[in-house]
Write a structure and sequence with these properties.
The structure is a homodimer. By secondary structure, the first copy, chain A, is an alpha+beta fold. Chain A has three domains: about 80 residues, Orthogonal Bundle (Arc Repressor Mutant, subunit A), CATH 1.10.10.10; about 150 residues, Beta-Lactamase, CATH 3.30.450.40; about 90 residues, Enolase-like, domain 1. Chain A is about 45% helix and about 20% strand. Chain A has 13 helices and ten strands. Chain A has a five-stranded antiparallel β-sheet with strand order 7-3-10-9-8. Chain A has a three-stranded antiparallel β-sheet with strand order 4-5-6, covered by helices on one side. The longest helix of chain A has 20 residues. Chains A and B meet through strand 4, strand 5, strand 6 and helix 10 of A and strand 4, strand 5, strand 6 and helix 10 of B. Chain A binds a DNA duplex through helix 3.
DNA sequence: AATTAGCACTCTCGGTCGTCGAGTGCTAAA
DNA sequence: TTTAGCACTCGACGACCGAGAGTGCTAATT
């Protein structure tokens, strides 16, 4: 679609003013914002053409115009200026990420809440494993004659343990047998291969009648299932209420309910490669509930074969540039933190759809 | 405050109708609900007296009446009928709790979301330790010449571990030294006593110059701090929007924001003993933000010296009986699950402020 | 051909006004 | 003590109206 430079800057202005004010933008306001000497009538006819092209629309006859989804799309693809993250925000992000390292179990929550605070939109964060996880090594620690600890080192370099309390005393020597046989038969295999047959064979080999083998095998299955499981977190839902498009309580509720369902979260749009920012605008969303909202998501490298995803959901009237910048910065920080690599620097990835002029901050 | 039986049942009726409809209740509606042959004029004069006593109030001259906080308080203390939990709800609770045992790290979230779903109000769940936690025992597992695992058994019967990757190879023999000295010097002591002096002394004793001792000691501190930390979860905030008293978005937002702050959560009203349900109505709340909301909370025994708290926040127009029943049932289930004891059966505790007539379900 | 001034037209927003109805309080009678 | 009757109050709701913002069109200008 060919657009004259003037039409482009009018479209850009309408988008940016509308993002800021949430009010339909009239021709006069555009002239003013452009600092142009054009008359409002001229701009008016241009805007009318932009409307015919489906880039702008009117809420009603006598109001100004607002961008259509197509208008936003064109803006995001071609008109949007990338910006640098503000120093303050960078500091907040860095210190939050540094501090979160200690609380790994709630890392996703932390990241989500950080993202949500910075962008003022609800945020979601997820991790999932891309590879197949197995156990690399077993150890058993004797505590007392009723108690021992199982320690398992997983193939993704995490360690899990379980304290086992038996109701009857056991012979400490059995722990050596367990160590030998579990390291021989249960390492390097995925969850599907921990079969009842294998467990029973192990029981016979160890000569165990007390059920210890079953307990340990149960722990193994639990671990492998858990390792496969994705982690997901959805934070900052209240923030939605800040934005006038969700003033309608029912609408806000519908969308929050939708996003609170982990099963739906995993279906949200997701960029293909780490570091890339994916912007999905209004009806481009597959989910019915998101047809008039937008999603901005970024992928990060969570170390090992773990991949992570952070995203933000808000009205189509969103400051895409700012949100993309924030997400991208956070993802970069997380990748660095968790995997020691920076996808944006190291590879072909780039923040898609974002120009590279620099208009500074704010 | 003496009240005739008739006035009591009028008050009860007003509360119950108002809880159901959220509309001010007129004298005629009361007569109807009571199935009484009294005339509305009689009820009217009774209601007028109840208003003089501060138990009812009028939103405006020509509307019906609604209970005042005092009215709710009297209702909760003396008029409310306890009820049994419905079979369906019991099944939901039991199966959710059983299923949650596996996902301990998110137990609080699960419990909160369960509570929130059943009551239709936002729920919070917390645990904290009442005792002082120390490490009972250390083990070190050799993985390879750069890598070892620290395993620590805490005094509350949980096990923690950490995988340590060094940049330079280490002598496996040092692990034995570490085992000996950490078990001798770092067990049974609280976090405050893990001082730099102790760490340096340990370093000298082991003859460590590579910083391994510092790493292990850092892990110890991290563990003890984390063990002291409370866990808190706030779930189901959207549910607030279901209730007409939070139709005002700003009001809803204020209260959700308030409850999203963990530091505030810990100050919410809390019953003194496990199993007891504590109901705090409107202005009885200390927090300014909760002056026109109510809180219902219950304490449970989380095993070891862990105590847990579940609570629900909603409008003063709340079905206290139903909420109390649900909370109490969930707390009972959790206590049983986590500590094997049932406080309601085993001790002096009772669900305070709840009568014992039985009006069945719903 | 592009731009502009001028103008009639459209539609929303906010305020005012009047009606309706639910519910009350009071009085006087039962 | 209870009740019927009645005047009164007040919010909810809808109709109406004027102001203001913005548009599209036309005719004149560059």
């Amino acid at each position: 679609m060919y657009l004259s430079e003037r039409k482009k800057s009018i479209l850009r202005t309408v988008v940016e003013l509308y993002v800021k004010t949430a009010e339909p933008i009239g021709s006069k306001a555009v002239v003013e914002a452009l600092g142009s000497t054009l008359s409002s009538a001229t701009v008016r006819s241009d805007m009318s053409e932009l409307e015919n092209l489906g880039l702008l629309e009117k809420p009603h006859t006598s109001a100004g115009r607002i961008p259509s989804s197509l208008g936003y799309r064109l803006y995001v693809n071609e008109l949007m200026l990338s910006r640098n993250i503000s120093n303050d925000d960078a500091i907040v992000i860095n210190s939050t990420l540094d501090g979160s390292l200690a609380v790994r179990p709630h890392l996703l929550d932390e990241v989500g809440s950080l993202t949500s605070r910075l962008t003022t939109y609800p945020a979601y964060a997820m991790t999932s494993s891309t590879g197949i996880i197995s156990i690399a090594r077993f150890d058993f620690i004797y505590v007392d004659s009723y108690t021992f600890i199982i320690v398992a080192l997983l193939s993704n370099d995490t360690v899990k343990n379980k304290l086992v309390h038996l109701t009857a005393p056991f012979d400490p020597k059995i722990l050596q047998k367990l160590t030998a046989i579990f390291n021989a038969s249960f390492t390097g295999i995925p969850e599907e291969r921990v079969t009842p047959t294998l467990i029973m064979a192990t029981e016979r080999a160890v000569g165990d009648t007390s059920g210890i083998v079953t307990i340990v095998a149960g722990f193994v299955i639990e671990l492998l299932v858990e390792a496969k499981a994705i982690g997901a977190s959805f934070t900052g839902a209240v923030n939605l209420l800040d934005h006038p498009e969700y003033r309608d309580i029912d609408k806000a509720q519908r969308i929050i309910r939708y996003l609170s369902d982990v099963n739906e979260l995993v279906r949200l749009p997701s960029p293909d490669i780490a570091g890339e920012v994916k912007i999905t605008i209004g009806p481009e969303n597959l989910a019915e509930q998101l047809k008039d909202s937008s999603v901005v998501a970024v992928r990060y490298d969570a170390g090992g074969d773990m991949q992570g995803l952070i995203g933000v959901v808000g009205p189509t009237r969103m400051d895409y540039s700012k949100v993309a910048t924030h997400l991208s910065y956070i993802a970069k920080g997380l990748s660095l933190l968790l995997s020691g690599t920076n996808p944006l620097v190291s590879g072909a990835a780039k923040t898609s759809k974002i120009g590279d002029e620099d208009i500074g901050e704010n």
